[in-house]
Amino acid sequence: LFDGTKESLDRNWSDANGKPTKWIYDAQERSFGLKLKTDKGWSTGAGPIFTRAAFGDCQLHIEFKHPADLKGTDQMRGNSGVFLMGNYEIQVMESYLTNPADMKEPNYADGQCGAVYAENPPLVNANRRAGEWQVYDIVFHQPVWDGLKLLHPGSVTVFLNGVLVQDHWEMEGLTTHCHRRPLAPHPTTGRLQL
After folding, report:
1. Which end of the chain, N or C, is surrounded by fewer C-beta atoms within 10 Å?
2. Nearest Cα to 158, choosing from 194, 129, 127, 116?
3. CA 160, 164, 169, 172 torsion: positive or negative?
4. Distance (Å, rounded) from C-alpha 41 to C-alpha 31?
5. By the 8 A CB rule, do 155 and 90 touch?
6. How far apart, in whole angstroms, are the C-alpha atoms of residue 150 and residue 60?
7. At residue 127, what are phi and psi to the nearest 5 degrees?
8. pLDDT for 179
9. For 49-96, what is each residue's pLDDT tens digit?
10. Is residue 43 over pLDDT 60?
11. CA-CA distances (angstroms) from residue 54 to 8, 135, 178?
């Protein structure tokens, strides 16, 4: 999906409508991403990025980094996510410090990096400091349906920087914020989203 070249970014990734992404390619680091407005904590307005191809069950290797001079508190510290099939989020967040005693405004447990967002906190804090590359290895099995009958809720196993943070977690619902959306049948493939 990305081999370090702008050509692979353009070939494999798009905005929500299939048009070229506004995410920025960095030739020096051979990576792509968003530049943040650190005064407000929001992105440059480029919106999410999607794979052009759709996937079901998959294994992903993703590398990301937050700027060393990142500003903000709680959910405004580089808030992003890896969305599997567009429905199941593995949180991306600058979460090096997670002890509330060490933080001015602590984040909630299932909003930390390594969490199945709004469902399950990471088993351990395996984060590196902002400015250092982080690595996700994710194995995802989608829910299995027979018509409207759920046969298996699907599961995700996540390693963050080589440390197990989600151990075959069975999905409880579709990703949302502040309320639960139950699992529901959906197509068997979907685009990955960052």
Report:
1. N
2. 116
3. negative
4. 21
5. no
6. 25
7. -75, 150
8. 77
9. 999 999 999 999 999 988 888 776 666 677 889 999 999 999 998 888
10. no
11. 16, 22, 28
